[in-house]
Design a protein that fits this description.
This protein has 365 residues and is of the alpha+beta class. It contains seven helices and 18 strands. The chain has a domain at 168-304 and 347-360: capsid protein of prophage fold (2-Layer Sandwich).
Length: 365
């Protein structure tokens, strides 16, 4: 009996593992549920750079018409209102990570352990990509500007290869009576009324945050830090946790849409989710991080955009897998690469699809 195998460096193995990295990263990533190619997606994937050259995608938003209109005795011809468009763009760049392992069959190290080091390297790189993309998305969504500083734990590779911008005017609310993150005290924790306030901000004014449609119903999605979830669970305010989590979705089965998969519950048309990548607060004067504050974020359609580079030599895949042997085939380096970028959408100097909600929140040690 013969068995088909693909060894180190085999072209078919590279193609297969590139596909597996993409599928595994997508299936395990919490934010993958938000990504789609249509303009109803919370994170819209732009495909322009995957089809041709270029390192930037520029996209447009048509502003709402503001004209008064016409009635009896008024002349419409020649008095038409012109369309107004605003633009934004997302940059893409190369990003990857490598792992070094001992080569199977060539070293005693690989012989000493009962698992496949090459396979473990692939799994580790898949997890790395999942974590890096999630951090980048929330740095942008929360407006966490300290992430722009180049250091061992921040910089462009933690920002989706695009500069993070602070929440714009009218797109940031605070618990209690605070008007900035540094003004939040220990009593300014996350309560259910903040969900209502965030939705009110999102659904009023000339630059409303457009909800995404779920089962024919307009919905927003809000991500909370685990510490904010704890505050919400233990809050004694009206609209208790039981009301939030009873999944009374007006006949909609939560299993019918991936956004509900893993959700904490729903309140007032806002689906609640949790992520440890929700960022800390930012001092508006010094720009420094505030460790006692977390920024929950409400998102609507086209809150963020992402883009990928041209398909690689192995076909239409977002990731490129690489393997290099060294030291007489004793050392093996594995790599998972992509050309990508992400950022929140900003049109006419206003955040288009997010509302940041800052509260006092300290994680349990």
């Amino acid at each position: 009996m013969s068995t088909t195998t693909f060894g180190v460096g085999d072209a078919m193995a590279v193609k297969l593992w590139s596909k597996e990295v993409a599928e595994a990263e997508r299936d395990t990533s919490d934010i993958a549920k938000l990504i789609g190619k249509d303009d109803d997606s919370i994170i819209q994937e732009k495909t322009d750079t995957s089809k041709g050259p270029g390192d930037k995608v520029t996209f447009a938003l048509r502003a709402r018409l503001s004209g008064k209109g016409f009635t009896e005795g008024q002349k419409a011809q020649g008095n038409a209102e012109g369309l107004t468009f605003y633009s934004d763009s997302v940059l893409i760049n190369e990003l990857g990570q490598t792992v070094g392992v001992r080569n199977k069959g060539a070293t005693i190290d690989a012989q000493r352990v009962p698992f496949n080091l090459r396979e473990q390297g692939k799994n580790g790189l898949t997890q790395w990509w999942k974590d890096r993309k999630s951090v980048s998305v929330f740095n942008h969504a929360c407006g966490y500007t300290p992430a722009n500083t180049e250091s061992a734990t921040s910089g462009s590779v933690y920002c989706g290869m695009n500069t993070v911008t602070a929440p714009t005017s009218g797109r940031h609310i605070w618990a209690g009576s605070a008007t900035n993150d540094q003004g939040l005290g220990s009593s300014d924790t996350f309560v259910v009324s903040l969900i209502d306030r965030a939705k009110e901000v999102a659904s009023t004014g000339n630059n409303m945050v457009r909800p995404t449609m779920v089962g024919g119903q307009p919905k927003y999605v809000m991500y909370l830090d685990p510490a904010q979830v704890t505050s919400l669970r233990t809050s004694a305010t009206s609209g208790g946790w039981q009301d939030i989590t009873k999944y009374a979705y007006s006949g909609l089965n939560p299993k019918d849409h991936p956004i509900y998969n893993g959700a904490l519950g729903e309140w007032n048309g806002v689906i609640l989710r949790s992520s440890q990548d929700i960022t800390q607060g930012v001092n508006s004067s010094s720009g420094a991080a505030i460790t006692t504050v977390r920024r929950a974020v409400l998102m609507g359609a086209q809150a963020l955009v992402c883009a990928y580079g041209n398909s690689n030599q192995y076909g239409a895949m977002k990731y490129r897998w690489s393997e290099e042997l060294f030291d007489h085939d004793r050392e093996l380096e594995l790599g998972a690469w992509s050309i990508w970028g992400c950022k929140k959408t900003v049109f006419n100097s206003a955040d288009f699809g997010v509302v940041a909600v800052s509260t006092y929140a300290v994680r349990a040690s």
